[in-house]
Structure formats: structure tokens, C-alpha cells
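Researcher: We're teaching a course module on how sequence relates to structure. For the next exercise, students receive a sequence and then see the predicted structure as C-alpha cells, so they can try to spot secondary structure elements on their own. Here is the exercise chain.
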Amino acid sequence: MIIVEKSVAVPAPAPAVPKSEGTTCVQIVQQWDSGEVVNWLCRNNYSHLQNWFLSYNGGDLMGLKRIAAQAPEFFFGKLEQEFGFKSLLEMIRFKNMLDAIV
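Model: And here is the predicted structure for the students to work with:
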């Protein structure tokens, strides 16, 4: 008697969505709609900013992050002028929160 083993191709598992402790994948954030942006603000105790961010989506947040990296003086000036940030500490915490999503 001859035993022949039949090999079966098993597909490789799908790669996990890249996610690090405390950060969210860029691809996920870019798909956020304005409601998810507002939820993100509220989860991070920035619900007072939701009126300014009602028209922002995830791609817009990514753009804001790029501006912060490429033109920090402009970015921090806008935080003060447009979003009403009053203290440096508040600006730092918001920037850290923005950095934590990607």
C-alpha cells in the first residue's frame, strides 16, 4: 500500500493593520469622516474645538500634521488665531494628540 499525501495550499494570513501602542494607522485616519474627527476630539477632551473641526476629515488632519512639521510657526500661530488656544501648554498637548494618531 502506498500512501500519498495531498498538499493543500493554505493562503497566508492577511497582514495585520499596522498599529503601535497609542497610535493609529495613517490609512485608517485618512478614511475618517468629520464625525470621526469630532469623536477623536471628544475622546481627547477637546470637545470645545468641535465647531472648528466640523468640516475636517481624516485627510485634513493629516494635512494639519504636515503643516505642523513643515511650517511650525504658521501652525502654532493658527492654533492661537483660529482655534483660540490661549496657552503654550494647550498647544503642546494638542500637537502631541495630533502626533499620536499617526
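Model: If you want an answer key for the exercise: The chain has one domain: 26-100. Residues 26-100 form one domain.
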